[in-house]
């Protein structure tokens, strides 16, 4: 459905994206995470055809996105900063979308507005950031998109509305086969709804996998050895990091395999406990040590 292949992009003299590769199946929900300045918004602007890539290609349904109106008409885009025409009223924005997208459903907009409750008589400039986000989500869901791309869509939303938005995204993916691409700093939201996640830092994809595989492979094991731990423990190929508090070793794995279990069990262990990690924990451990990873939590 979506193929991003070896995409490179410069803005001015700064290299923003470096050989980015991502493939997303139809009807799946894909999350993109990374620290501020990692290149997430630039990648989204390439994916929506706002930017032309310098190298590589971005395709939806096997067609290049840039300068392709037939592809863009099936893509909904919710930006992190929805700069609509400030003098327009909500009803005029609805009309604008009706004229721009043949697939726009006024019936669906009305149904969504029973949840989001924005007066069509209100002028855009009078809407708060959260209300503008609600409007953008409604408008883009109402074009009945095959692909829905969202950049920080829960920013400014209260907890009740945020929960409604996430439920709507899951319903669209399950019932209409909508392919959802979502970038967010709220990792608990992504963990709840995404099938797969990519971690981006410094313009590169550092890790890409399904949530299920991540949870199976990136794990924390607390271990107490009868005597000393193996001197080369931190360099084992399956391990990301090792820390020690007293006699307890905290081991973070990147490949929690039967081979690793056998290796550990052969090292005179007196206690071992597996601990599940949240997506937030997995993100930190995956790129910890790289400058800027902590920015995501500011």
Secondary-structure map:
Elements: E1 2-11, E2 14-24, E3 29-33, H1 40-47, E4 55-60, E5 63-64, H2 69-72, E6 75-78, H3 90-100, H4 106-116, H5 129-142, E7 147-151, H6 159-176, E8 179-183, H7 187-193, E9 196-201, E10 204-210, H8 211-217, E11 220-225, E12 239-245, E13 248-253, H9 258-265, E14 269-275, H10 279-287
Parallel strand pairs: 3-8, 3-9, 6-7, 7-8
Antiparallel strand pairs: 1-2, 1-4, 4-5, 9-10, 11-13, 11-14, 12-13
Structure report:
This protein has helices at residues 40-47, 69-72, 90-100, 106-116, 129-142, 159-176, 187-193, 211-217, 258-265, 279-287, and strands at 2-11, 14-24, 29-33, 55-60, 63-64, 75-78, 147-151, 179-183, 196-201, 204-210, 220-225, 239-245, 248-253, 269-275. The protein has 298 residues and is an alpha/beta fold. It folds into two domains: 2-213, Rossmann fold (3-Layer(aba) Sandwich), CATH 3.40.50.300; 216-297, Alpha-Beta Plaits (2-Layer Sandwich), CATH 3.30.70. Strands 6-7-8-3-9-10 form a six-stranded mixed β-sheet, with helices on both faces. A four-stranded antiparallel β-sheet has the order 2-1-4-5, covered by helices on one side. Helix 4 packs antiparallel against helix 5 (129-142). The longest helix has 18 residues, at 159-176. The chain is elongated.
Strand content: 25-35%
| CA-atom Rg in angstroms | 22 Å
The total of beta strands comes to 14
Going by CATH, the architecture of the largest domain would be: 3-Layer(aba) Sandwich
What fold name goes in the CATH topology slot of the largest domain? Rossmann fold
- Output the structural class: alpha/beta
Low-confidence stretches: 291-298
What is the element string, with H for helices and E for strands?
Answer: EEEHEEHEHHHEHEHEEHEEEHEH
CATH superfamily of the largest domain: P-loop containing nucleotide triphosphate hydrolases
Number of helices: 10
Instruction: Give the tally of structural domains.
Output: 2
Distance between the termini: 34 Å
């Amino acid at each position: 459905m979506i193929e991003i292949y070896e995409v490179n992009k410069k803005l001015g003299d700064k290299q923003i994206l470096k050989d980015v590769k991502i493939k997303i199946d139809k009807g799946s929900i894909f999350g993109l995470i990374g620290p501020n300045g990692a290149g997430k918004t630039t990648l989204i602007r390439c994916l929506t055809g706002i930017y032309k890539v310098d190298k590589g290609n971005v395709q939806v349904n096997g067609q290049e996105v840039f300068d392709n109106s037939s592809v863009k008409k099936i893509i909904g885009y919710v930006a992190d900063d929805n700069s609509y025409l400030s003098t327009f009223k909500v009803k005029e924005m609805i009309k604008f979308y009706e004229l721009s997208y043949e697939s726009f459903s006024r019936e669906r907009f009305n149904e969504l507005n029973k949840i989001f409750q924005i007066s069509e008589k209100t002028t855009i400039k009078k809407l708060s950031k959260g209300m503008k986000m609600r409007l953008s989500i409604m408008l883009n869901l109402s074009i009945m998109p095959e692909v829905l791309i969202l950049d920080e869509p829960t920013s400014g939303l209260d907890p009740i509305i945020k929960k409604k938005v996430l439920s709507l995204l899951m319903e669209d993916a399950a019932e209409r086969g909508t392919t959802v691409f979502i970038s967010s700093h709220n990792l608990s939201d992504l963990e709840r709804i995404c099938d797969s996640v990519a971690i981006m830092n410094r313009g590169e994809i550092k890790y890409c996998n399904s949530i299920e595989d991540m949870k199976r492979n990136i794990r924390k094991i607390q271990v107490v050895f009868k005597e000393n731990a193996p001197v080369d423990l931190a360099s084992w190929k399956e391990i990301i990091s090792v820390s020690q508090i007293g006699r307890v070793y905290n081991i973070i794995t990147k490949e929690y395999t039967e081979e690793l279990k056998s290796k550990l069990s052969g090292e005179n262990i007196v206690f071992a406990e597996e601990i599940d990690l949240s997506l937030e924990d997995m993100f930190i451990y995956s790129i910890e040590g790289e400058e800027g990873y902590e920015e995501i939590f500011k």
